[in-house]
Structure formats: structure tokens, C-alpha cells
Amino acid sequence: MTSQVSQATEASALTIRAYRPTDHRECRQLWAEMTAADAGLYGATSNDDSGAAFEEYLTRLDLSGMWVAVDAAHLVVGMVGLLLDGRGGQVEPLVVASARRGEGIGRALLSHVADQARRRGLGQLSISPAARNRDAIRCLHAAGYDALSRVTLAIDLRRKGSVWQDGIDLHDLRFRY
Asked: Which residue among 56, 102, 132, 145 is buried most deeply as judged by most CB within 10 Å?
């Protein structure tokens, strides 16, 4: 199933459709871009083939669907996946080409995956952005992801040269992120 989304940019239309094998190269590149951006948030570098994990992702048994956003020039400018998680679903990944962020593409992909989850009878969707990705968190909150369903805590065993920043309170406790 495809959906049309109007855009108020030079790209007059955006189509969201199911992933096809012919989208592989562009989606692998989007995955690499996402991996590099996430690594950069924590001062790390991604490996030379940061798109390689895309191959593993495509083989996941819990992958229920994957969709791409295609612009008027027929370029894949974003992608979203839906993983089954009990009676709910997990949005993974959600990625928009860095040059196209801020155009509503991510919100359109989120709306599409939510529709697909409803059609599958899922009761809840979750997504896990990096704690430092403020832009993603703001976008997700605006799209309705405003309930905390799970918190993942980490201990930094390196301590020396730690890249964590101070600044988030939860349940009267201070956390680094």
C-alpha cells in the first residue's frame, strides 16, 4: 500500500510505499548515515562499513514491514521499519536523509507505520532514539510519542575519558546521557 503526502517544499509530493529489493542500495546508505550520526552524538566514529548492519536487519524474524519515502524525483529519502514486540510494535529504524530533514518526511513515515501497526492489530508502538538526539526526541514527541514505556540504563566501564554529559532527572535521580 502506498500513500501520498503533500509537502510544502520544492518536492511537491512524497510517496510512502513498501520497501523493494531495488531500494537496497539507497536504504543501506541511509542506514550508514544513521549509524554515523548516532556514533557522532557520543564522540565515536562508525566503522568503515557502517551500512553492513542493514544486511543483518533485513534478516530479522521479527521484521513485520519496511517502508520507504520516495520524493518527486523518485529518490528514496527516508525509511521506517516495524518490528513485532509481543502485542505491540517497535519502530526501527526511522531515518530521513540528512539533507531532507525538517520537511515532514519523518512525521509522514511515523504516521504510515502507525497506520500499518493499527491494521495489524497492535496495541502500542515504541521507538528508542539515542538520548542525546534532541531533534529526534522533539520530532517523536510532536508525533505523539509522549509516554515513557521503558528506560535503558548503562554503566560506563571505561570511566577515563567518558563522553557522558550531565543533565537529565528522572524520579528524583540525576542521570548522565
From this structure: 145
